[in-house]
Amino acid sequence: MTDPLLSVRDLVSGYGSTRVLQGVNLDVDKGSVVTLIGRNGVGKTTTLRSILGSVKPTSGTVTFDGNDITELSPEKTAQAGIALVPEERRVFPGLTVRENVEIGRIGGRRDIEKPSVDEIIDEFENLARHHESRGANLSGGEQQMLAIARALVSAPDLLMLDEPTEGLAPSIVKQVQRKITELNDEGVTILLVEQNVQVALDAADYVYILDKGQVVHEGPADEVAESEEVLDRYLGVSLAE
Ligand SMILES: Nc1ncnc2c1ncn2[C@@H]1O[C@H](COP(=O)(O)OP(=O)(O)OP(=O)(O)O)[C@@H](O)[C@H]1O
Ligand SMILES: [Mg+2]
Question: Higher confidence at residue 89 or residue 34?
Answer without folding.
Answer: 34
